[in-house]
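Dear colleagues,

As part of the handover before I leave the project, I'm documenting each prediction I ran so the next person doesn't have to rerun anything. This entry is a single chain, and its sequence is reproduced below.
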Amino acid sequence: MGTILHNWHIKSLQGYDCDMSSGPRKTPDKVSREVASLLREHLARRRMSQRQVSRLAEISPSQTSRYLRGESSPNLHEYVLICEAIGVHPDTVLSHAIHNIRWRERYAKDDEYAVPIEGQVRYNLDPRNFPPQES
């Protein structure tokens, strides 16, 4: 259980209204929605059901479903439990979420569903940014 978010992740959250706290829950923000999307992706890759995650994390199925749909934000403890149940490190999910949001803000402002391609070096795929191919 002893997962601790690294200082650089906390610094990365500055400027974003991130609701992964132990206080009262608010409407999910963009970080929480992106985290939910990434958790669903990991869930699908592992061919796990939400019910399995719910059982392993010891969180009610309905609450787990709301978290994974991005309708509600888990507190930090529940977030770690869900990540452990899925088998993904909480830091990894959070850093990917922040990366995706920043990439989208820079390169795909009008498309909230756009994501960078894994391992891609050049994110702006506008053909004008590529040098002509030599024949």
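The mean pLDDT is 76. The first helix runs from residue 7 to 12.

All the best with the project,
I.
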